[in-house]
Amino acid sequence: MINFQFSRARDVADAILLLTGHPGAKLIAGGTNLIDLMKENVEQPSRLIDISRLPLRTIEETADGGLRVGALVPNSGLAYDPLIEQRYPLLASAILAGASAQLRNMASVGGNLMQRTRCAYFYDTATPCNKRTRSSGCSAIDGLNRNHAILGASNSCIATNPSDMSVALAALDALVHIAGPSGERTMALTDFHRLPGETPDIDTNLEADEIITAVELPPRGFASNYSYLKIRDRLSYAFALVSVAAVLELEGNAISEARVALGGVAHKPWRSAEAEMALRGQAATVEHFSRFADSLLQEAKARSHNGFKIELARRAIVRTLMQAASATPQSQAHKKIA
Amino acid sequence: MNAYVGTPTSRVDGRAKVTGAAKYAGEFAADGLLHGFVVAATIPCGRIARLDTSEALKVKGVLDVLTHTHRPPLAGKDDAWKDEVAPAEGSPFRPLYDDSIKFNGQPIALVVAEDWETAKFAATLVRVEYREEQAFATDLDAGRSKATEVKQPHEPRGDAVGALAKAAVRHDADYLIPTEHHNPMELFASTVVWDSSGRLTVYDKTQGVQNVHKFLCSVFDKKPDDIRVLSPYVGGAFGSGLRPQYQVVLAMLAALALRRSVRVVLTRQQMYGLGHRPATIEHVGLGAKSDGTLEAVTHEATAVTSRYEDFARNDSGWAEQLYKSPNSRYSHKLVRLDVSTPCDMRAPGAASGVCALECAMDELAVALKLDPIELRLKCYSDRDQSEDLPYTSKQLRECYARGAEAFGWSKRNPASRSMRDGKELVGWGMATGVWEALQMPVAARIGLTANGHAEVSCAASDIGTGTYTIVAQVAADALGLPIENIDVRLADSTLPQAPVEGGSWMAASSAHAVLGAADDIRQELIRLASAMPSSPLAGVDVADVILVGGTIAKAGDMGSAVSIADAMRHGKLERIEKQKLNHFAEDKSYARNTHSAVFAEVKVDEQLGVIRVTRVVSAVAAGRILNTKTGRSQIMGGVVWGIGMALHEETVMDHRFGRIMNANIAEYHIPVNADVQDIDVIFVEERDDRINTLGVKGLGEIGIVGVPAAIANAIYHATGKRIRRFPVTLDKLLA
Ligand SMILES: Cc1cc2nc3c(=O)[nH]c(=O)nc-3n(C[C@H](O)[C@H](O)[C@H](O)COP(=O)(O)OP(=O)(O)OC[C@H]3O[C@@H](n4cnc5c(N)ncnc54)[C@H](O)[C@@H]3O)c2cc1C
Ligand code: SF4
Asked: Do A234 and B675 touch (CB under 8 A)?
């Protein structure tokens, strides 16, 4: 057997202790991503630290009127939580657009943030992949890259982050609470995932001996004008080709605030503060949204098979913003696009 | 009496399946069972330079690692490896035979351990060095120019090429069908149970136990009695289990080497190293007069095969059955690539070829400004043109009419992009389906006991199609017994003969074997009953006597009834056993086919290209439907397959590595529930007294044929875009 130690962390401090000085250690929560990768010999942790019983399963109100979601809250528990449904329906919608009911029951908030790319080469140890083995080469750049990044990619890696939840969290300006040997810290979700650069093997800015304890949602949930639209190769149970999380604050028909995050297009949820600023004060029209989309996708770069994603993203952005503006958010139960 | 035949009888094995009592090949237990795990090649072509198993052998719990240099003997001649359905041309693949690598994913070693996890782990420690000898090729598009022509499905008639060139209206195009994999729910598995006498009982996932039995006897040089093969339940196969698969050879090798019972279960990923629907380029040319009658049909299929076997099916010849044309030419070409040999997959040949033909007919209808059904009726062929034969029955016209009515076809606006529903473009398309109505030699044995219970047995497999149920129905009716009194035993190589279950031939073939055996039982019972003192049946004409309600009686005269129990008791018989091989009159003066008309509605988001198949109506003419419930399920399953073929399914290969890159069912897409909406199945009445006694034709494949074309045609109607490279995904619509 590939021998690994298995320990059950008693508390967060214990989990950190078990991680410290043990670079091959991995936390395991729902296991829906890590175990798959272990079965394919992509991940070979020397120590597995089971955190699934840690008391990080609550959703609590914060002093400033936001919510703090424990890292072990299951994805389904989060999506169906009444407070989330009422105040952060964008998040509920994005989660329900992902995976299947069975997977969502197992998957945790922390694990979802940490899930790895679905790039086929990353999964296949018979092919080179920089993300799996540093400096081995990227098979996707000149290979099958229909569902690879159009934004923020490097010459080392063009993989995308597959999470739906993270896209909504990015649009909501969520914070990630992290605990490590030197204490606790928080990080904006938009800073949590990295671009691949020269070190695509490192997905996030979480240190090896740190653990995610919670995700914090700021008070503003944009429950009136939001939408999450996921475009994929079948009507359910497939990773996004492109997804869009959009929230708006409107005064009449004028936009006082707009936030848009894209999924399926980059190594991290993609936002542009500049483009969002430019929407402020504008009327919520197709024309303005199109201009916004162009600006958000300004640096998009096509590879051999994924050029369609640029135009698809452009159209999806406009549609999602129109859904948000008209308060007709995309339903994840009815597959017809609103 | 038909108490059961033709009714929606529920599956007799349904309870066993849903409660888990039904056991599959990988579930049989044995004392001291060992587990094998396959090590698969990671290059498509070359030789094994070195195989180092020493690290794997050191793992505690590992008993052995079998390789081509370390294994029990295997037959050396190709003939020994040719199973019942092996291609005529070529040399079948032999696992662990020598150092050559013929395809990526080929098994090159089997680790055998006390448990599966240990075997799987140790498999990662087997070190392989390859010698890559020559450039390899796995891409059909790139290899097209090197295609070689093999058999033609039919002789050419007239001068199709010339007539096509001269035709007033012409349509000529390539349609591309990608490689597809069957992905049955059940993983391929074999459990070989070893007993000290040396006899081997093999539980195998297969569509034909006798095929596997014969194959194993020849490959391992065993006598028929040394091996018994069983496959009582099969969790789907769709053609992937027609040929014996390599895991059964590996499990046998390990059992023989270690003299222990061994189970080998493939992983989902490894199953992509088995057979597949070959990628094909279907070139269809149609030439018509301006009135819509055809002048010429040409259809050339260029399909992938392996380097070591020529797998070829009838892709291109189906217009011969469907559309009248004075000139025709059909051909089949092969491109030999470094991949595993393709194999039959639901409606092999037809699913791909008719897809292309029916898309082409749609394009021709547009060019002619004719309604697609009208065009098909103008060319409707009442005869199979290649042999100029009439059909035993052909209710295809009725399929068009009934299907169109149920679908509401008359409300279709013929212009593309003319119908919409909010942001979605609506499209209605249709296509024809056709398949063969085949029948094969099958024998059945019936053992009737005096208490009115019967056991019916036959080596045929039930791959989920409902064979257990229809055999029970036919037997119950023929013996005049309640279905609860019928026990059916199938899929054991020691039972009466049956070929592989495939080609949609098993329903007709097994039903008539049962009818034959039941008739012998009837005659025996009449003999017994008439011999009773003052028998009401004395001297009666045998032809007038039926079995009904547990009695032997003159038809329509229950006063003459003698109970089976009395007749057998009087004859001092506890059990009557009869075995019969079916017999079909070899009448070559008719063609035999099943037909369908498929109608599809799609809604396509105009901006985003997202496609939804909102309705499918499939009107099928396939003779008598033995069981309207399992029959309907077959057709619905075929429609779902057709949706997958139209929109989702594609085995994606990286030709630089010659490696399949979506070898799992998260990334190899098939329809999920959300992709499947309304499906309406109509069985069009089709009496057929010529084909066989019951008038049965079979339903396994006709359900898929035509569906992908109907959907692609609907997408054209919705969007004005003709996508000829399947599957039709949204990026192609946006392009
Ligand atoms: C077939 C399939 C389809 C899917 N489809 C989708 C989809 O459409 N959209 C989508 O968004 N997702 C999809 N998923 C992915 C799914 O959402 C993730 O697998 C899941 O969210 C991971 O959560 P987990 O708790 O099971 O993580 P695990 O598998 O337990 O862990 C994953 C990683 O996170 C790390 N980790 C876990 N918890 C913490 C923590 N508290 N702190 C630090 N590190 C931690 C682990 O060390 C590991 O590296 C799919 C998965 C599958 C198998
Ligand atoms: S894109 Fe990234 S994950 Fe994919 S092969 Fe290249 S380096 Fe590996």
From this structure: yes
Q: B608 vs A316: CB contact, 8 Å cut-off? A: yes
Angle between helices B506-530 and B467-479 (to 10 degrees): 20
| CATH (domain of A283) | 3.30.390.50
**Sole residue written with tokens 């009439």:** B390
Amino acid (1-letter code) at residue B551: T
Mutate to test the pocket of ligand 2, among A42, A121, A193 (most ligand atoms within 8 A of CB): A121
> With contact defined as beta carbons under 8 Å apart, do B346 and B183 qualify?
no
Least CB-CB distance to B608: which of A144, A238, A337?
A: A337
pLDDT of residue B585: 83
Supply the CATH number for residue A28's domain. 3.30.43.10
SS3 B683: strand
pLDDT tier at B1, thresholds 50, 70, 90: low
Q: Which of A126, A309, A337 is facing B659, going by the closest CB pair?
A: A126
Q: Which residues form the pocket of ligand 2, taking CB atoms under 6 Å from any ligand atom?
A: A 117, 119, 121-122, 129-131, 138-140, 148, 157-159, 200
Span B688-717, average pLDDT: 97
Domain range for A16: 5-50
Residue A71 lies in a domain: no
Interface probe for B, chosen from A160, A233, A326 (most Cβ of B below 10 Å), is A233
Tell me if A30 is assigned to some domain.
yes
CB atoms A144 and B675 under 8 Å: no
Is residue A277 situated within a structural domain? yes
Q: Picking from A2-11, B8-17, B511-520, B724-733, which range would have the lowest pLDDT averaged per residue?
A: A2-11
| CA A32 to ligand 2 centroid distance, Å | 21
The reply to whether residue B607 touches residue A319, judged by beta carbons under 8 angstroms, is yes
- Nearest chain A alpha carbon to B610: A231
What sign results for the dihedral spanned by CA atoms B16, B17, B20, B25? Answer: positive
Instruction: Decide if A217 is inside a domain.
Output: no
Provide CB contacts within 8 A for B208, sequence distance 6+.
B84, B85, B241, B242, B461, B498, B499, B500, B501, B502
Q: For residue A127, which atom of ligand 2 is closest to its CA?
A: 5
Q: Which of A47, A112, A43 is nearest to A77 (CA)?
A: A112
pLDDT value of residue B196: 87
Show the domains of chain B with their CATH numbers: 19-134+185-237+241-273 (3.90.1170.50), 280-438+588-734 (3.30.365.10), 440-581 (3.30.365.10)
Say yes or no for a CB contact (<8 Å) between A234 and B42.
no
pLDDT digits (tens, 9 = 90+) for B583-613: 998 789 999 999 999 999 999 999 999 999 9
Separation in Å, CA B29 to CA B35, B193, B230, B735? 11, 8, 14, 54
Which ligand is nearest to the Cα of residue A159, counting in written order?
2
DSSP structure class, residue A108: B
Predicted pLDDT at B134: 84
Based on the residue annotation, tell me whether B701 is a catalytic residue of this protein.
Answer: yes
- Confidence (pLDDT) at A1: 61
pLDDT for the residue numbered B275: 98
What mean pLDDT, rounded, does chain B reach? 97
Q: How confident is the model at residue B95 (pLDDT cuts 50, 70, 90)?
A: very high
Per-residue model confidence (pLDDT) at position A204: 98
Chain B: nearest CA to A220, how far in angstroms? 30
Q: Which residues of chain A have pLDDT under 50?
A: none
Provide the pLDDT for residue A316.
Answer: 98
- Residue A106 C-beta-side C-alpha neighbours within 13 Å: 12
pLDDT at B152: 83
Among the listed residues B133, B161, B127, the one whose alpha carbon sits nearest the alpha carbon of residue B57: B127
ipTM: 0.97
Q: A126 to chain B, minimum CA–CA distance in Å?
A: 6
pLDDT at B323: 98
pTM: 0.98
| Count of the separate structural domains present in chain A | 2
